[in-house]
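Hi R.,

Here's the chain you asked about this morning:
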Amino acid sequence: PAQVDSSSASQNQETLVALFQNVNPGVVAIKTIGAQAGSLGSGFVFDDLGHIVTNYHVVEGSRQVEVDFTSGFKVSGTVIGTDLDSDLAVVKVDAPASELHPLTLGDSDALQVGQTVIAIGNPLGRTLDSLHTSSNGGTFTAGDIIQTDAAINPGNSGGPLFNLNGEVVGINRAIRTVNSTESGEPLNSGIGFAVSSNIVKRV
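And here is the predicted structure, written out as tokens:
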């Protein structure tokens, strides 16, 4: 594969990977069931007492709250505090200490224009429908989907998704979109999905 001759890009990638591995255990997915329907959001571990911080709108009107940890551990949570002005909520969970990885709060006043920031969460899940339907009309789920913020648009479907070494790590398949052009063509909203290269190998 073609090599990208950029030590700084590679170093930056390693920094981001290390950051993710360090903080990801403290990020949780939050699933709620309300009076009308369910919703999906993200949150983070605030302390080792089981307090989870999230947005109020994530848990607003919920009857049940489920908190999913990156290890696969799932637990019911109780909303114990809300602030509608700041759109914040605190969810309390009873989880073992091994699952609780509190994240450190920084000083937002020290932020500078142009500074790189990273968003980690649970946007949209990691699954897409299969094009194969069951005998009763149901739809199967396609597994091992890669979620990316690379700019993927309709014409990218079927094309390769590369890593910094020029290796194909996925086949671009779909984008998340809520907008379209005047002709009805979907517009990229910043999140795309690709079939993983390991699924390509298996198929």
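One quick note: The radius of gyration is 20 Å.

Cheers,
M.
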